[in-house]
Write a structure and sequence with these properties.
single chain, about 325 residues, alpha+beta, D-amino Acid Aminotransferase, Chain A, domain 1, Dna Ligase, domain 1, 7-stranded antiparallel sheet, 6-stranded antiparallel sheet, 10 helices, about 30% helix
Length: about 325
């Protein structure tokens, strides 16, 4: 049974809707000239490296169909890699290979594909099948993330990533997206990944949701999300806030992965971050954004913005409910 909630109730809880997000935050604080830097993953990577922000290693870029055959030949010697559209969004078109089986390529789900599948997928990327607006695109090949082993219990068949919403350089809300078998190993909530709200103050879990339903443990591994506490939390917030300064965007989402050796690394940026993070945190964004604006006006600089955010948005108690997972 679907339970409808009145607009007045949503406003009272500070829920940010799409129209208000688009008008009051994205349009008001993100200048159009800065969009290409985040919509194009190659430009994002270049800008990040120029500022000393770590990103996954780039193996190569394919911008013409005739290059695809050579790309597959080069990948025959690699155990793992990621092929993604340069101008993709929402996790669409990302192909993750985690190992080899003979001449086959093993996806994170365990399925085995062959060289013709790689060629077909890359050709579809170049044709714009996964890109914003269906424009012709490039394909980029990156190193596979060797993610922090602590997080393995909270993600299945895929790499988890941390999404941080930043407003005017102030980290406002965060979650970690944990892959599941249902999501085909991708950290995409719409495909069945679990979103776990994270306390800005401590990096500890607040609540967890899958398909909009509260859960307490991972559906595949059984790990309790109540126990989740992100390592390198201060470094994660520092990286996210630095991305706001790098892009000149007032409102953005930074997606970060935790590498075993290198720690927090920038995966990609989003000038139009989704609103499901409110469900994962069981809290609306509106009130926090209002407070963050005051912090931005009063703070002396980068470090103070982060310190005030951690103090102000800290939630001492998680909101997990006793529900079945």
């Amino acid at each position: 049974m679907i339970r409808l909630v009145s607009p007045s109730t949503l406003r009272r809880h500070g829920i940010l809707g799409m129209n208000r997000r688009n008008i009051s935050f994205i349009s008001a604080w993100n200048e159009r000239r800065n969009y290409p830097l985040v919509d194009n993953k190659l430009l994002t990577k270049t800008a990040a490296l120029d500022r000393g922000i770590p990103t996954p290693e780039l193996y190569g870029v394919i911008d013409h169909q005739f290059q695809i055959a050579r790309m597959v030949d080069d990948l025959m010697d690699r155990q793992g890699f990621v092929i993604k559209p340069v101008q993709g969004s929402g996790g669409k078109g990302i192909l993750v290979v985690v190992g080899r089986e003979g001449e086959g390529f093993v996806k994170s789900s365990g399925a085995v594909i062959d060289a013709s599948d790689l060629r077909r997928h890359t050709s579809n990327i170049l044709a714009g099948l996964y890109s914003l607006g269906g424009r012709n695109d490039f394909a980029m090949i990156e190193a596979l993330i060797d993610f922090n082993p602590y997080l393995a219990q909270f993600s299945y068949e895929g790499v988890p990533d941390v999404r941080v919403i930043v407003f005017r350089g102030v980290p406002v809300m965060a979650m970690i997206r944990c892959a599941t078998h249902a999501s085909d190993g991708k950290a995409n909530l719409h495909q069945g990944a679990v979103g776990v709200g994270i306390d800005i103050g401590t990096g500890r879990s607040i609540a967890a949701v899958q398909h909009g339903r509260l859960v307490t443990s991972h559906p595949d591994t059984g790990a309790s999300f109540r126990e989740l506490e992100l390592p390198d939390w201060e470094a994660i917030l520092d990286l996210a806030a630095s991305c706001a300064e790098m892009t000149g965007l007032g409102y953005l989402g930074a997606d970060i992965v935790l590498d075993r050796q290198r720690g927090p690394m920038l995966l990609e940026l989003n000038a139009r971050p989704g609103l499901a993070i409110q469900v994962a945190n069981q809290e609306g964004l509106v009130h926090r954004l209002q407070v963050a604006s005051r912090i931005a006006d009063e703070a002396a600089g980068h470090e103070e913005r982060i310190r005030l955010a951690r103090e102000t948005f800290h939630r001492p108690e998680p909101v997990f409910e006793s529900v079945g997972s």
